[in-house]
Amino acid sequence: MSSTQQVLAAGPSTLNRPRRRSWHPHLPGVELTWAIAFIVPYAAVLVAFAIYPLVYGLWMASSPSLYLTLFASDEYRDAVVSTMLYVGIGVNTSLFFALLLSGFFMRRSRWVKAMLVVSMLPWALPAQTGFISFHWMLVYWGFLNSVLEKLFGIYGPDWLTHYWLALGANVVASTWKTMPFWTLILLAGRMAIPQDLYEAADIDGATGFRRFVHLVVPLLANLYLVCTLLSAIWMIGDFNTVDLVSGGAPVGSTDVLATLGVEYLFDHGKPELGVAAVMAALPVIVALGILLIRRLQTRDVQL
User: Fold this and answer.
1) Yes or no: is domain 73-296 CATH 1.10.3720.10?
2) Would you call 99 exposed, middle or buried from its count of C-beta atoms within 10 A (0-12, 13-18, 19+)?
3) Cα 77 to Cα 256: distance, rounded to the nearest angstrom
4) pLDDT tens figures, 121-140
5) How far apart are CA 67 and CA 44, in angstroms?
6) Among 109, 166, 174, 285, which one has the highest count of C-beta atoms within 10 angstroms of its own C-beta?
7) Which DSSP letter does residue 161 get?
8) CB within 8 A of 93, min separation 6: which ones?
9) Are 176 and 266 in contact (CB under 8 A)?
């Protein structure tokens, strides 16, 4: 019996039964609605918290006379030097020790894993609490000098009244706070290296330091550079560390551009000059951001 005869034999109920419409997932109206629903909130947040503050800041600091005033100021020149030292020393110190610690945490012992968890605590703790503790430990009658006097009979200096000691305190506090994060990133990069390469290096006799130099360093070089660029961008805009640890002491000599801009804004009542002091670092941040994006597009990043 043909298919036509089977349908006719089934009776009129089969002929009159309406066909079920199949839902098509690619309706233009539905796609447009979902696209708007997902894009609009992100676009609003981007405009409200990124584009608008940047454009408004550029408008406030658009007068060339502001930069002439800044460049003629000793405070600004000292802040530029302190920012370069703080960022240059802090970034390299934090990343170097993070690279070494990532190798230590590659061990599979249980106590090493427990130490890894403990080492993450500085990153998890609130920054304000930790940096205020650093400040009170470094004052003349603070914890550090008390320990030096009781254990070694040494009368420690007033750490925050000497430029290099105060700058070093800022670097140490920043390293203490950020190093656990970079350690975790570099540890993930090390774990992404195939185990076959380690075994091949062992067969070739490259163990210990030679394996680190000829295997780990080349494979982590791009990731290390990406972390360095990102850390530099963060530290250029870092306000909490310098403000809470040294407070710009002695006599504002360890102020960085972020803290100097806030001082111009609140202490001197010159918001345009404060914004100009911060915006003066924008070309450096943009250049670092472009370089960072270009490095992220390479295929050699181990994650």
Assistant:
1) yes
2) buried
3) 10
4) 999 989 999 999 999 999 98
5) 32
6) 174
7) G
8) 171, 175
9) no
The secondary structure element, H or E, covering residue 66 is helix 64-71
Cα-Cα-Cα-Cα dihedral of 18, 23, 27, 32, to 10°?
Answer: 130
Query: Taking the domains of the chain in order of start, what are their residue ranges?
Result: 29-60, 73-296
Q: What is the per-residue DSSP string for 208-234?
A: THHHIIIIIHHHHHHHHHHHHHHHHHH
Complete DSSP assignment for 129-142:
HHHHHHHHHHSTTS
Q: What is the largest CA-CA distance in the chain?
A: 110
Query: Which residue type is seen at 167?
Result: L
The CA-based angle 108-122-112, given to 5 degrees, is: 10
pTM over 0.70: yes
Cα–Cα nearest to 131, from 79, 172, 83: 172
Instruction: Look up residue 129 and give its two tokens.
Output: 């609490």
Cα–Cα distance for residue pair 47/54, rounded to 1 Å: 10
Task: Please say whether the beta carbons of 79 and 248 come within 8 A.
Answer: no
Q: What is the DSSP string of 11-30?
A: -HHHHHSPPPPPPPS--HHH
